[in-house]
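In full, the data.
>
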Amino acid sequence: MDTVLALAWLRAAATAVEQHEKELTELDAAIGDGDHGANLRRGFAAVLPAVEGLDSPGAVLGTAGTTLISKVGGASGPLYGKALRAMGAALTAGSPFADALDAALAALRKLGGAAPGDKTMVDAWAPAVAAYRSTGSYAAAAEAAAQGALATVPLQARKGRASYLGPRSTGHQDPGATSTALLFRALADAA
């Protein structure tokens, strides 16, 4: 991960979120509060000007994370923000990208208290990290994230707002896992 790729990833992510805003909002309306798409679009729109001119991937991702925390409401801003900040810190410390992805996953799990199978973004992030670690391929990570998001459909939510629905949360794809899959696809496309 270099600065050029970090910036390209965030631009591709902003485009993907904008293109899929309606889908993310509809998924969130079914089992949440219906603001996931709009919140992420607003957040990534604020990220782009904040990161322009930065000269290291750690600074780019760290600043993106801080911007998401300050600009995005709901749970997704703090979760994605902490994940990107953890990645930025790991890259600044000289860690390889696989370790930066692990740091992001650890930050997500710590903040949200979620584990795989809880019907959250962790269900897409964890398999993406595992796929990248085993293959070194952004495309493999994106495919694993997409499969992880699809695998949330039959799950009953155990964390977040969707957990209040109990068994009624089954049959719906988790919006956070879906946006995670979009971000990993954006990374693969940018690479």
The radius of gyration is 15 Å.
